[in-house]
Amino acid sequence: MEQGSHQLKNMPIKKLLWKLSIPAIIGMTFNALYNIVDAIFVGEARGESGIAAISIVSPVQMIVMAIALTIGIGAASIYSRAIGAEDSEKARKTVNNAFVLGLTFGIIISIIGLLFGEEIAYLFGMKDDFKLDTMNYLEVIFYGITFQIISMIYNNLFRAEGFAKTAMVAMIVGTSTNIILDPIFIFDWGLGLGTRGAAYATVIGYTLTFGYLLYHQFKSKGNLRLKIKLMKINLKISIETIIVGIPAFVRNSIGAVIIILINNLLKQYSIDPTTSIALYGIISRTLIFVLLPIFGIVQGMSPIVGYNFGSEQYERSLEATYYSKKITYTYFLIVFILIQTSAKFIVNLFGVSQETIILGSNYLRLTLLFLPLLAVQIILTGYYQALGKSKQAAFIALLRQSILLVPLVLILPIFLGEIGIWIAIPLSDLISSLVSFWLYRKEMKSFRIQYLENLEPITQL
Q1: 26-83 per-position pLDDT tens digit
Q2: Contact (CB, 8 A) for 175 and 34
Q3: Measured in whole angstroms, how far is the alpha carbon of residue 413 from the centre of its chain?
């Protein structure tokens, strides 16, 4: 049976993509399930106030995720190309460098958060109405930041090596623990800790994921194993890692900025800011639940594209890109239909009032109106990252979440009030998707001309 780099080179693309993606999809689905279940339990225990509180904390977690993915995706891209070019020395240095970077950023963020948590929460849109719930959650979360960052970095590196099952199990271990502990820690029949209990469950989950991956890293005899003499910052590799990973940082950090901006705009334009912020939290977590599994496809695609490009097997790189796009579009189309027909049921899961359910279901349908069109931009970003084209990938990420959404969400409420905030989201999705589709067609044509002039119809897109 082919393992590691051998399967990246020789296994049929469709079989290989599913082999690498299914564990990632399962792992990401469990991770997405945590976001939903966490909010459901908090909503049942604390209502709109509790959901609003974790919605305020969400940007903090997204920024942390942005940093972790910057290092993880950047290092994984370098690692894939290094092993494709049979450069084991660079692969080992990349792994150790990524670990040290993650540890450094984790400690710095934790210290800043513990010292200035309340100031950060007010900046992110916290109101005194739900301050207690917010701070109970936020203070605990900062203790687990380092474990979260290193876990996400190593998840990407294990997938880059082709060990997707190990990465999947690590995510399942952490998320399952979190979900099991949530009700025990949150509700009065258990420890009765409310939102603080939800945060404790999250930190314990991250810690177990970190421990699982660290254990398997020590078991590894290959390039993934940490070595004391290599555990130092390599400036050249660090710069390359960050440059390649910048699109992931842009996508997630801009996403955090958007949440902060919208939370503050809802405070300004909404008659009932607590309910509106809670609804935006519900919709954001629903979108994350929808998107994270498909990022499993991207994580399965990236090492295939990167490795085969590095080993000059260009047709395999392009075939993986095409097939991934097809899967992603089909998935989004199915999910779109389910959301449009089941919006009330989804919002009702979070324990909010009947009036909030009706309002929230309308906003949910509206904000995800152009969901199927996101397929092309997600795949195109993953393709650019796998090839180390950070500028192009960053542009795609910026187009939807910054260049278009920020001005729309600032301007439309002036004329339309609160509803303008909700309209801005699908409108930016529509415009950015049309631009991304044009760029995708252009990129695929350029790739064929440059590397595969006689490519068969598989990539005639």
Answers
A1: 877 877 787 788 888 998 888 888 898 988 988 898 899 889 989 998 998 888 888 8
A2: yes
A3: 28
What span, in angstroms and rounded, lies between the C-alpha atoms of 452 and 29?
Answer: 36
Query: Quick check: 149 and 105 in contact, CB under 8 A?
Result: yes
pLDDT at residue 3, rounded to an integer:
54
State the CB neighbour count (10 A cutoff) for residue 330.
12
Token pair 């199927």 in the structure block, residue: 372
Q: Locate 392 and state its tokens.
A: 């192009």
What's the whole-model pTM score? 0.78
Written as one string, the DSSP assignment of 302-328 is HHHHHHHHHTT-HHHHHHHHHHHHHHH
Length of the chain: 461
A 10 A CB-CB count for 185 gives 23
Q: How many CB atoms lie within 10 A of CB 180?
A: 13
DSSP label at residue 459? G
Torsion sign (Cα): 188, 189, 191, 197: negative
- Check: CB of residue 253 under 8 Å from CB of residue 63: yes
Q: Is the dihedral of CA 415, 419, 420, 421 positive or negative?
A: positive
* CA–CA separation, 416 and 276 (whole Å): 16
Reading phi first (left if > 0) and then psi (alpha if -120 to 50, else beta), residue 312 is in left
Structure tokens at 317: 């790189």
Q: Looking up tokens 């130092």, which residue turns up? A: 232
